[in-house]
Design goal:
heterodimer; A: alpha/beta; about 25% helix; B: four-stranded mixed sheet; 10 strands
Chain lengths: ~190, ~450
């Protein structure tokens, strides 16, 4: 008997009392979605910007290696998406479109279509996500309802920049992945 | 070494153990604050517990459903009955890729299987990429906490270590500076690795996808740059439906560190073009635990670590005192199932205060199971010292005269005996504790004076 059969038959040999799978209520919640989302991103050490705030930051920084997969910001790109993710090593900025955001925790959903390369939002030095302010959901329950039947090889709930507190619980932004997350709400 | 012996070692550095205690309590406090912001918090715990109950009651069919869907999506599914088989499967995949260096994100399961030493013996370099795990790996130590692997270390120690390993400035203890040095070091490893290993937080039967959560982004840095992703998953990590993730992702990070969600929550459904994803489904004692009715629901654990942060014993004895891959209250009910003799002191490493049960996001009755394990341990070995004192107490409580005399004796003894006798090495309860001031009179004497 191989291990698969062994594990499954051991489980099947046990008398296990039946337990019903509970339904998940909708848990609707009132409150201003944009305000809550903005607060959540800021709590996660990211930043929500208006388009003009973003423009000011971007032009002052003078980046030379920028990839933009967001159609609205395609003019800012200096590089096109490489084939090999290893070529992202010195990328300074990636600009991506988010599908929707979740107000309770700032999580933004992205799939292969938005990412181009799965390594992109992690390998880049700075990450910018463009999000429609009308596409905010209240909680993770509504978020999962939205992607219930979506079928992407990879999907990501992204909520902030790479961070760690592994040295004496001191929070440091920019561990191994992107050093910053800016969300442009339009 | 038993838990009390190891704990005594930890407590020798009084300042550090006090810091450990306070820091973990601070994390527990953050968990309280953030959970109180969710009006339906208790309902979510109830739901999570109910979903996990259903999973455990139907584990075989969910595993088959998961396997079928994952396979359909192009993920290669393997099964491992024990840690040896798990390690062998990982090695075989690495050998097929001619891979001699691998990056690994946090996985308690691979710690449980002792994968690193196994691979290193075969000449493969394993780089743990979570910052805390890299720190303890440099020290040849296991993690002392499942979420905060290096919580037992002070920044001065990490500074010293990084000076030696990563050539950072001597004496520079700035966490941002040290993290930056680790970033440069680890990114070099990510960009050079052909294979990446991760753990799994949740596997979804309905879709065949699995979810990995990190704050550092290290799991994703590894797998998206590598050709091959090996995900190691305990069979109890299954959830039935994608929407169940809504419940569990709301609970996990809030319970673990008091943050609303981890910054990266990656859903792996099928490999990128030309790449491979392998998932290894591991039993290693889980079906045996499923068979133990009293201890079955310990398998609901989602490894948030909340029970450790709240536990008065864990906070004051450190993760290493448990000498078990998963320390703290949950480890003390999981580990005796793997090796009762080795872990026999763990169910006693608790005050049974129940705080672990109160904070558990999936409502495992941890303190009750600790109590149950005590019965199992006692049945298997007996405890003569405690037996004798219980017999003595039994005699005293049976006779009113003996009770009266012994009460007055004890009151005087507490007052007049020298500390050396009260705090003698055999009295473990005297360690790090002050005995209360003894009352001047017994309750009986007080009653006669005031109420009769």
């Amino acid at each position: 008997m191989n291990s698969r059969e062994k594990i499954l038959s051991t489980i099947r040999s046990l008398t296990l009392e039946p337990k019903t799978l509970p339904d998940i209520p909708n848990f609707s919640n009132s409150g201003n979605l944009v305000e809550r989302f903005t607060q959540s991103i800021s709590d996660n050490k990211g930043e929500v910007l208006t388009k003009s705030e973003f423009d000011a930051w971007f032009s002052a920084a003078n980046f030379s290696k920028v990839i933009s997969l967001s159609a609205q910001f395609s003019a800012l790109a200096t590089l096109s998406l490489p084939e090999d993710p290893h070529d992202l090593e010195s990328l300074e900025v990636a600009i991506l479109d988010g599908q929707f955001g979740v107000a309770e925790n700032g999580a933004i959903w992205l799939e292969d279509t938005q990412l181009g390369l799965r390594a992109l939002p992690f390998a880049t030095e700075h990450l910018v996500v463009v999000l429609d302010r009308n596409l905010l959901e209240n909680s993770m329950h509504q978020g999962y309802e939205k992607i219930a039947t979506a079928h992407s090889g990879f999907g990501l709930f992204l909520a902030g920049p790479s961070k760690t507190a592994d040295i004496e619980q001191s929070l440091v932004i920019g561990a191994q992945g992107a050093r910053s997350l800016r969300v442009i709400l339009i | 070494m038993t838990h009390p012996e190891n704990a005594a070692e930890f407590l020798k550095d009084a300042q550090k153990s006090k810091w450990h205690d306070e820091t973990l309590w601070f994390v527990r406090d953050k968990r309280d604050k953030v959970s109180k912001g969710i009006p339906e918090w208790e309902q979510l715990r109830e739901l999570a517990s109910g979903i996990k109950d259903n999973v455990l009651a139907n584990l075989a069919s969910y595993l088959e459903e998961f396997e079928q869907n994952a396979t359909k999506n192009g993920i290669i599914v393997h099964w491992a009955a024990d840690s040896e088989e798990h390690n062998r499967l990982v090695l075989e995949i690495l050998q097929k890729q001619n891979c001699t260096a691998v990056v690994k994100s946090k996985s308690i399961l691979t710690e449980e299987c002792h994968l690193n030493p196994y691979l290193e013996k075969q000449g493969i370099e394993v780089v743990d990429t979570d910052l805390g795990e890299r720190i303890v790996q440099f020290l040849n130590q296991p993690p002392s906490h499942i979420v905060l692997p290096a919580i037992h270390l002070k920044k001065s120690e990490i500074s010293e270590l990084f000076h030696e390993k990563l050539h950072t400035e001597k004496g520079n203890e700035d966490p941002a500076y040290l993290t930056q040095a680790a970033r440069v070091h680890l990114r070099e490893k990510f960009f050079g690795a052909k294979v990446a290993i991760t753990g799994v937080n949740f596997g979804i039967a309905e879709t065949g996808e699995f979810v990995v959560c990190t704050n550092e982004g290290n799991a994703d840095m590894g797998v998206h740059l590598a050709e091959v992703h090996i995900a190691c998953m305990g069979i109890e990590k299954i959830l039935p439906r994608r929407k169940d993730l809504g419940v569990f992702l709301r609970l996990l990070a809030r319970s673990a560190t008091g943050q609303p969600i981890t910054n990266y929550n990656s859903h792996f459904r099928s490999p990128s073009h030309g790449k491979e994803i392998h998932i290894i489904l591991v039993d290693n004692g889980r079906t045996a635990q499923l068979a133990r009715e009293k201890f079955r629901n310990s398998l609901k654990c989602i490894r948030c670590g909340a029970c450790m942060n709240t536990c008065p014993i864990y906070r004051r004895s450190g993760g290493f005192s448990y000498n078990s891959t998963v320390p703290g209250p949950i480890g003390s009910i999981l580990s005796p199932g793997l090796d009762l003799k080795k872990h026999s002191s763990l169910p006693f490493a608790s005050t049974l205060c129940g705080s672990c049960t109160d904070v558990c996001p999936v409502k495992i009755n941890i303190h009750e199971q600790l109590y149950e394990w005590r019965q199992e341990v006692t049945k298997s070995q007996g405890d003569f010292a405690k037996g004798l004192s219980m017999k003595l107490a039994n005699g005293i409580f049976k006779s009113p005269l003996a009770y009266k005399i012994s009460g007055s004796l004890m009151r005087n003894a507490l007052k007049s005996l020298p500390n050396s006798l009260i705090y003698h090495p055999l009295n473990v309860w005297g360690k790090k504790r002050n005995l209360p001031d003894a009352p001047k009179e017994s309750f009986k004497q007080w009653y006669q004076k005031n109420r009769s």
